[in-house]
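Students often ask why inverse folding is considered easier than folding. One informal answer: many sequences map to the same fold, so there is more than one right answer. In these notes we will look at a single instance of the problem. The structure comes first.
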């Protein structure tokens, strides 16, 4: 994957899981690409600093933690650990998926 610019994001699949990778202020973050409200993909939404907005009904989530920031969603989305090695982004999905 090419380097992401500030505020840019890209959707991908990691081990069969829909993941959204974002770059904010020089750091990379990875969260589920599915809104916890009604399952909309978040990659069509807007990223404003660390807040991703769902394009369907406007819920917001913090890409650093997956925490829900704004209704109508009430549950967080999953966030995944990210590491950078040799200019590549690695996302650890874990065993729970
Ligand atoms: S599906 Fe995301 S806010 Fe409703």
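Output (designed amino acids):
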């Amino acid at each position: 994957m090419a380097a992401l610019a500030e505020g840019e994001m890209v959707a991908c699949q990691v081990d069969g899981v829909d993941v959204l990778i974002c770059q904010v202020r020089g750091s990379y973050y990875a969260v589920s690409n599915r809104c916890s409200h009604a399952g909309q993909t978040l990659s069509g939404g807007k990223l404003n600093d660390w807040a991703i907005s769902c394009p369907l009904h406007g819920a917001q989530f913090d890409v650093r933690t997956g925490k829900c920031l704004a209704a109508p969603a009430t549950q967080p989305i999953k966030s995944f650990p990210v590491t950078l090695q040799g200019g590549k982004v690695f996302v650890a999905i874990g065993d729970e998926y």
